[in-house]
Amino acid sequence: MNEQVQPAGGPMFNPLSPDFIRDPYPHYERLRTVDPVHVTPFGQFVTSRHAEVSLVMRDKRFGKDFVERTTRRYGPAIMNEPVFRNLSHTMLQADPPDHTRLRGLVVKAFTARRVEDMRPRIQEIVDQTLNAMIDRGRMDLIGDFAFRLPVTIICDMLGIPEEHREAFHKGSSDGVRILDPVPMTPDEIKQSNARNLMAQMYFQQLFELRRRNPGDDLTTQLVLAEEDGNKLTNEELTANIMLLFVAGHETTVNLIGNGLLALHRNPDQLALLKARPELMVGAIEEFLRYDSSVQMTGRVALEDIDDLAGKRIPKGETVLCLLGSANRDPAAYPDRPDRLDVTRQNVKPLSFGGGIHFCLGAQLARIEAEIAIATLLRRLPDLRIDDVANPEWRPTFVLRGLKRLPASW
């Protein structure tokens, strides 16, 4: 049996504590140093170093096996809950051959050429958003700016009609607690079920609309795949459209928000980026590394693993990969990894995952953030964040982002 290493003052890995949410990076450093494959009170293995995180994400001895790891945590009845049943049908939680089939249906929408062709539309949305705000002299950089861009882009890609979009622009992302390693409470599950069922109802109506009026969009493409029943079931259609909507904006909102906060907490880097806008592409990689939108991903051991940094991982056990910790591992980034440096070379953050589950929308998220931040710095050079020292973080761990970020100019 693996011995658990716990600090004297409490658990070493407590990702929903206010202190951890506010700044997880000192906790990561301790994990990497003291217990790089840590066993949590819930019996999960937590990897925190770059080497092990990279290995687990890419090694075929590990898979998703969502139903197995979820029923281990909650019991078999949990799969009757709509939000868990829905997630089990997504490509995010699938192993081959289902993962290969599901991903193959949408991958063409995210080719490098298609994403590059979106640049003019992305610039248009950013400029329209700033035009509506610029005379006010202040805004919330999350709700008024970062949120609207990726939501509009994913609505474009899914063919969501213009008249339906305002509800999405006013939406909330509180339902992502399901991804956190700490089990949800019955009340949280109930609330997530309600949000999930409402979303399912909307997308079922959208499917009917696209069956009657096909368009050049992802929803039409997947509806046609559903009608060819060998490719997609109705449950898979619903689940993966909902996944694309959430994943299509969640990480980008956080990338923009976390990047802007990091810049304003490091005025020398902010001044450098304003003076040398050609550094922006590399700066986006550094933002991803420095304060990742996605802090963790998970895998299940598909066979007994004899030695992962000195620990034996029995078949069926969950391994959590701390992406945010790996991105600051001195073994991968020896030059002061806890410092933001927009000129840093050879930055290859693990923020978009790895292996067969590498994020489909990674390049789209990069381009959206690049255009959004560059335009903001150019058009509002005097912008200042009201409180860089004590921003309000969302009370979730896996998807790290700010509730709001008030700013003025």
TrEMBL record:
GO molecular-function terms, A-Z: heme binding; iron ion binding; monooxygenase activity; oxidoreductase activity, acting on paired donors, with incorporation or reduction of molecular oxygen
Name the record gives this protein: Cytochrome P450
Record's keyword terms, sorted: Heme, Iron, Metal-binding, Monooxygenase, Oxidoreductase
Names of the cofactor(s): heme
InterPro entries, per database record: Cyt_P450 (IPR001128), Cyt_P450_B (IPR002397), Cyt_P450_CS (IPR017972), Cyt_P450_sf (IPR036396)
Gene3D superfamilies: Cytochrome P450
Classification via SUPFAM superfamilies: Cytochrome P450
Its job: Cytochromes P450 are a group of heme-thiolate monooxygenases. They oxidize a variety of structurally unrelated compounds, including steroids, fatty acids, and xenobiotics.
Family indicated by similarity: Belongs to the cytochrome P450 family.
Annotated source species: Bradyrhizobium forestalis
